[in-house]
């Protein structure tokens, strides 16, 4: 990955492609690339849908190699949903293919005049930007099917559905999986709307004629990768739990803990949670001839995804993840997995974030637009988004907008981004991350990344309550670094519990780039990324007062523990003091 | 469930049908137990779960919806709800682990030892099994017997496919043989009664 492509969509005479060297961005990938570039090059007060914003697409530092789990793609910009800096990442094939073509980043800049819609073709011969108005308002599944007729099955596609074209704030960017289904989404923050604003409907990435990226020390890299894979396979989470049940294995546990937000965060337990659980879902998938074990990109050994079929054995969608099953399920009082699967398909097809949409429908239910537990009404609301009706445009702009339009007080957002599936009143520590992350409420912003091994911030006694601030800080630092490698976050458990697996990861990074990589280097990278993101947000007008949860979390105790969010503002303000 | 008539039902099932019982087990079933002891003793002595297995596989345990860190200090009351889980993904999964590095993040709901007097007696508790523990611990609980309201058991049998019944080799109702298909009759068990259901999964012939 030795080059950066910049595509000025607003250039006089039509889009202009410039390919240059890495310059100051040498050695970066993933979130480090997107965030440092956006922080340096986008005016913090730019309108997110305007010409000044940039959409930075970057494979991880190890993407395109023979390394396992290296297929995450980061997309960064100023978010139209939050107004903050945004990095949103996804699996699928795009990162691997783009990296093998040598691009450390592809940057969409400017904004074209007129209504023409473009597709971008990237291959070994270069980059073409082509007008294709036949794609207008197509949704992702039919769109990819149409593109496949022209570009075939040996490429990766990045696309936006009708939501992105309509610049809805929940719009995502879809990346195709190994079966060329548009199921892997850079979902959070409305990145699809930014792509839509630049009038780019699809990016076709073809690595024909290209080889795997060669490591500087092939033997050491191969050995480190082997140890890394062994570590993933022997760990009970990455080797057993996730392959068997996927992330939805969390439903039963969160519900038992009283941390499963139900009926728009009114209760911490859902009576019908077992009907939605990963255990139930996996059994149903297998019974219907689908699969409970499937990888979102080639080279994945965890295989946490699956295939969800209908009762007649026909494909409906990929295995909905925990957050999706929650947002469209318990959050809306819905306990039918077939309904959740249909909504997941609609999200993927229209091109919207499943968390944002599910939470929005729950807020709409609180507004009286439907009853909690009304499956048909939930689908009907999604159809409004699909059709682009005025109501659909409100809903497709997320929970915060919907709450304002309909006068709902209980709107679970931070920096206007919907909270994920863990109630911060039950799990206070994750509330710290929700409140303070640079990204708006995001459960992956402070993941369980080996902070115990990294000793981020020194030795913390995690059993002390006050350790929660330190833990959140350290988790956010470590996560920012891992998001830059292109590694799937689910490696977290194996590297957290098995020091030899963590060392194997460091050895992979080091042997690939011909350097010696230490835990301190990882921490330094994470701090650098977070500092740049915080600085951007400050310049964009965000203050410590935005690092707060909505007031209802402080005022409304939640069953069964009857607890409110108790972290003090002064404590939250300490998270980024390093 | 005290003072209710209790029916005994014993099923001998093929191994293939074990999964049919998972919805019951993850939702929770009532089992007889000697309460007033620690969770450690309940697991090891009464449920005969080896300490090594408990340490390595049952990484997350809830007692009355509160994650526990110490098996030794968690005392079991009558009607306690005990949920057992294998290792979980996600930050919250890691947070819920027994004695895990991130335990502070759920400090507000953590179970802490209480000093109240707990009567040492035979009673019932409710147990839930999740994820990897369903196939591993489920057969033991089913074999020892679960207590289930008649209505719930009828609903369970009513939804079963022909494949399930083919896998039911034999059934004994209060020690009398009964054709398995008849178990789906809604009037088989008296209203408001409870059933002590034991399920054996003998090795294939």
Strand order of the largest sheet of chain B: 7-10-1-8-9
Shape of chain B: globular
Q: Please give the count of helices of chain B.
A: 7
Q: What radius of gyration of chain A results from the CA coordinates?
A: 22 Å
Strand content bin of chain A: 5-15%
The count of helical stretches of chain A stands at: 24
How many beta strands in the DSSP annotation of chain B?
A: 10
Q: Helix content range of the residues of chain A, please?
A: 40-55%
Low-confidence stretches of chain B: none
The profile of the biggest β sheet of chain B is:
5 strands, mixed
Strand percent estimate of chain B: 25-35%
Based on CA inertia axes, which overall geometry of chain A fits? Answer: globular
Distance between the termini of chain B: 38 Å
Average pLDDT score of chain A: 94
Order of helix and strand elements from N to C terminus of chain B? EHEHHEEEHEHEHHEEE
CATH architecture of the largest domain in chain A: 4-Layer Sandwich
Domains of chain A, number: 3
- Main beta sheet of chain A, described? 6 strands, mixed
What does this structure look like?
The complex is a heterodimer of chains A (about 575) and B (about 200). In chain A, strands 2-1-6-3-4-5 form a 6-stranded mixed sheet. In chain A, strands 8-7-12-9-10-11 form a 6-stranded mixed sheet. Chain A is an alpha+beta fold and about 575 residues long. Chain A is built from 24 helices and 17 strands. Helix content of chain A is about 40%, strand content about 15%. Chain A starts with a strand and ends in a 6-residue tail after the last helix. In chain A, a hairpin with a 2-residue loop joins strand 7 (about 120-125) and strand 8 (about 125-130). Chain B is α+β, with helices and mostly antiparallel strands. Chain B folds into 2 domains: about 1-30 and about 135-205, no CATH class; about 35-120, no CATH class. Helix content of chain B is about 25%, strand content about 25%. Chain B is built from 7 helices and 10 strands. Chain B has helices spanning about 20-25, 40-45, 50-55, 90-95, 135-145, 150-160, 160-165, and strands spanning about 5-15, 30-35, 60-65, 65, 80-85, 120-130, 145-150, 170-175, 175, 195-200. In chain B, the strands form 2 sheets. A 5-stranded mixed sheet of chain B has the order 7-10-1-8-9. In chain B, strands 2-6-5-3-4 form a 5-stranded mixed sheet. In chain B, strand 8 (about 170-175) and strand 9 (about 175) form a beta hairpin. The model of chain B has no long low-confidence stretch (mean pLDDT about 90). Chains A and B meet through helix 7, helix 8, helix 10, helix 17 and helix 19 of A and helix 1, strand 4 and helix 4 of B.
